[in-house]
Design goal:
Helix content is 71%, strand content 0%. The protein has three helices and no strands. Helix 1 (4-63) crosses helix 3 (101-113). The relative contact order is 0.10. The protein binds heme C.
Length: 117
Amino acid sequence: MRLFKPNYLKVVVILFGIAIIPAFRLTTLPTVIEARVIAEESELERAALDILKSKCNVCHTRKNPKKVFTSKNISDLAPKIYQQVFIKRRMPKGKEVKLTTQEYAVLEKWLFTQDIF
Ligand code: HEC
């Protein structure tokens, strides 16, 4: 019985180890997923800001300087961007600047990450 004991302990330790690995993974999984979602969302926001900078700020800088899009105001202006670009379709104003299908898709996808609906 004495000889058997250490082995028995080893088995318990090993089984505990095997059991704790998936349990540990389960506790960290939500944070891993959350981190990935945050990374994806900030990537999307960067892409949206690139579009707003190249297609909208070119004009706003001169004609509507109060609404020059930056990384700081982009979220606050999301509801207005949605209204102007997708609902009223007033922006981009004029005939010169057009958004491509891809650019509309990126803006729309980013808007879905904003709490505006
Ligand atoms: C050729 C010029 C021009 C371009 C390009 C342009 N805008 Fe504008 N935008 C204006 C002007 C001028 C105003 C202010 C007067 C008005 O609302 O028409 C304005 C106003 C706005 C407003 C505020 C409207 C409100 O609620 O009062 C938003 C939001 C906006 N633009 C978004 C955009 C977005 C997004 C783009 C790019 C996809 C864009 N604009 C491209 C000229 C432009």
